[in-house]
């Protein structure tokens, strides 16, 4: 994946901001607390130890 953009997302558990890398500037991001079987995604772990998934398309 070539990274061309970043986006700030909030942890769905505690609201802490995290920066994720996106393949394009106009990608739509979708934060999920569970894994889905489709789509490009990245996994984020916040400083409180919460793991969540960010989908983009
Ligand atoms: Zn968190």
Describe this structure in words.
- InterPro entries: Brz_Regulator.
- The chain has one domain.
- Helix content is 0%, strand content 49%.
- The strands form two sheets. The protein has a three-stranded antiparallel β-sheet, with no helix packed on it. The protein has a two-stranded antiparallel ribbon with strand order 1-2.
- Strand 1 and strand 2 form a beta hairpin.
- The protein starts with a strand and ends with a strand.
- The model has no long low-confidence stretch (mean pLDDT 88).
- Bound molecules: zinc ion.
- Zinc ion binds next to loops.
Helix and strand element order: EEEEE
What share of the residues lie within helices? under 10%
Chain-averaged pLDDT = 88
Bound ligands, each once: zinc ion
Strand order within the widest beta sheet: 3-5-4
Count of DSSP E strands?
5
Evaluate the radius of gyration.
11 Å
Terminus-to-terminus distance: 13 Å
Query: Which consecutive residue ranges, at least 5 long each, have pLDDT under 50?
Result: none
| Largest sheet data | 3 strands, antiparallel
Structural class computed from helices and strand pairing: mainly beta
Number of helices: 0
Please give the domain count. 1
Strand content: over 45%
Coarse shape: globular
Pfam family, one: Zn_ribbon_Brz
InterPro entries: Brz_Regulator
């Amino acid at each position: 994946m070539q990274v061309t953009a970043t986006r700030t997302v909030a942890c769905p558990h505690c609201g802490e901001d995290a920066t994720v890398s996106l393949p394009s500037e106009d990608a739509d991001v979708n934060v999920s607390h569970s894994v889905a079987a489709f789509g490009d995604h990245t996994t984020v772990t916040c400083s409180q130890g919460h793991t969540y998934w960010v989908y983009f398309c």
